[in-house]
Specification:
By secondary structure, the protein is of the alpha/beta class. The structure holds pyridoxal-5'-phosphate.
Length: 219
């Protein structure tokens, strides 16, 4: 299925009107489909795999802002740091320290979101509230150079029960409000199946793949 430019335009207009940033999730998708949206003005693209992000970032236009939305392994941090606009899924101090080390080496700042576990599924990554509070407290006492925490990211349960999804997004929004000391500006929540629910619950950034690019094959 080719990229759906009409769907893109409609979703983009809808999100623009609400002041929400659209990250077009292009994982597994070829350069020409990314360029089709680029030509429409899209600049924020999301990728889940380090190698794929690096390949695309080094071959596609330099003004694309690449978002890493997958689970980042510490041994891949140095590969991605030069190319990434925002790392969405940071969920450990160990990972933050590694990002800080690589950022410092390169003399750059890396924007990060802390991932919070809001879904009931066991498989999703992320911090619970206690871990989030401990991590933020640790950073407060002992700041890491090269890291800019910009907010929170979360994924709701994969379910058709939109009441449940709404509750989960509401929980994330409440944590965002509770722990934001005024320096945060990004609440990344909402995907193809639930972005309108996320928008209504105060999302500032949604990550949408399949509505724009069609269903993905398994990688
Ligand atoms: C793949 C992915 C998305 C996009 O999912 P769609 O349902 O295709 O919109 C969003 N966020 C994360 C973390 C993803 O891995």
């Amino acid at each position: 299925m080719p990229v759906n430019v009409a769907a893109y335009k409609a979703i983009k207009a809808e999100l623009d009107a609400a002041g929400i940033t659209l990250v077009a999730v292009s994982k597994t998708k070829p350069a020409e489909e990314i360029l089709a949206l680029y030509q429409e003005g899209q600049r924020d693209f999301g990728e889940n795999y380090v190698q794929e992000l690096v390949e695309k970032a080094t071959t596609l236009p330099g003004d694309i802002r690449w978002h890493f939305i997958g689970h980042l392994q510490t041994n891949k941090v140095k590969l991605i740091v030069p190319y990434v606009q925002l790392v969405h899924g940071v969920d450990s101090l160990r990972l933050l320290k590694e990002i800080s080390k690589e950022a410092a080496k390169k003399g750059i700042m890396v924007n990060c979101l802390l991932q919070v576990h809001i879904a009931t599924e066991e498989t999703k990554f992320g911090l619970n509230e206690e871990e989030l509070a401990a991590l933020l407290n640790g950073l407060n006492n002992d700041p890491l150079p090269g890291i800019r925490i910009q907010g929170l990211m979360g994924m709701a349960s994969f379910t058709a029960d939109m009441e449940k999804v709404k509750d989960e997004f509401r929980t994330l929004r409440a944590l965002y409000d509770k722990y934001n000391t005024g320096h945060w500006s990004i609440l990344s929540m909402g995907m193809s199946g639930d972005y309108r629910v996320a928008a209504a619950e105060g999302s500032s950034m949604v990550r949408i793949g399949s509505l724009l690019f069609g269903e993905r094959g398994k990688k």
